[in-house]
Write a structure and sequence with these properties.
Length: 311
């Protein structure tokens, strides 16, 4: 069950990343367009292919977990198709999630994205990967759906709820595609070609005139401090992504996605502990006891749903 620890550690890192994402997409001086931020996120995610270079460096210690070029093979058509499907669905999920984060708190958006992604991963995994469902699946769905409804309907507008649900669905498609890729080939080979697909997909957006203009214009308009902040945040996110993908390779994709519920718990804890030092764009709309209790209740319902799901 070491893959569960990998997934849990990844969610702690991703909680920090989500808060920085919220700051970046909310600050017009940083990077005003979620589409542009999603483009750079995809591009930098693809750049993690450079981790294979580490495998070429003679080190005094042996790290079997470091991806190696020696394990990379010529891809089949199926591997190429799944790799590009993973890249496409990841980009669409990011655009929707960043748009939602621009309009609502991370502690409100992330629970919905995580719950929808977990449920959709169950369904897709059952039909396409042969995933066996828990006996308590129905009760888990009821609790997750109730918690998701309470968070999305009572805490932010319908438009933001729709964006969050859309993001969750496409994150599920992304991770099921990745799991299918790992079932078809080795982790090193699948990770390599998925990163190639990420970079090629991101660069292909520049071939579309309207996208090219949008990316160039808003990149020039971004604040000087945006570049280093985005790069650092995406490097940290890349570490978390590798942990999630390794957990997905070793374990069940639906369980890994369900462990995403830890992310919004971590966000809630970070918010309670460090909100005094947060910039204005990261601060919640309210800090009263009623709002805090409301969030704890909603998160508890969703968390209970996850527990029932895997009991």
């Amino acid at each position: 069950m070491s893959w569960i620890l990998l997934a849990a550690a990844a969610q702690l890192i991703l909680a920090v990343v989500a808060l920085v994402d919220k700051f970046i997409v909310s600050d017009e001086r940083a990077l005003p367009k979620p589409f542009v931020y999603a483009f750079y996120t995809c591009l930098i995610s693809g750049a993690w292919i450079l981790v294979y270079v580490v495998g070429l460096i003679p080190l005094p210690w042996h790290f079997s977990s470091i991806p190696s070029f020696s394990n990379v093979e010529k891809p089949t058509l199926e591997i190429v198709a799944l790799a590009f499907l993973a890249a496409y669905t990841f980009f669409l999920a990011l655009v929707s999630m960043f748009n939602a984060l621009k309009q609502a708190d991370a502690s409100d958006v992330v629970p919905v994205v995580g719950a929808v992604s977990a449920l959709a991963s169950f369904g897709l995994g059952y039909f396409f990967l042969g995933t066996q469902l828990s006996h308590n699946f129905i009760w888990g769905i009821v609790l997750l759906s109730l918690g998701t409804f309470l968070v999305s309907r009572l805490r932010f507008p319908l438009k933001v709820a729709a964006l969050s649900i859309h993001a969750g669905l496409f994150f599920a498609l992304h991770y099921v595609s990745i799991k299918g890729l790992f079932l078809m080939t080795t982790f090193d080979n699948g990770f390599f070609w998925s990163r190639v697909a990420f970079m090629l997909f991101a660069l292909s957006l520049l071939l579309v005139p309207i996208y090219y203009e949008k990316i160039v214009v808003h990149t020039k308009a971004a604040g000087k401090s945006a570049g280093p902040l985005i790069l650092l945040n995406k490097i940290i996110a890349g570490v978390a992504t590798i942990l999630v993908l390794k957990a997905t390779d070793l374990g069940d994709v639906a369980v890994v996605q369900a462990l995403g519920g830890l992310q919004f718990v971590f966000i809630l804890i970070l918010g309670l502990l460090f909100s005094h030092w947060f910039p204005q764009s990261l601060k919640s709309e309210g800090h009263g006891k009623a709002i805090i209790l409301q969030r704890v209740l909603f998160v508890s319902i969703i968390a209970l749903g996850f527990l029932v799901l895997f009991e």
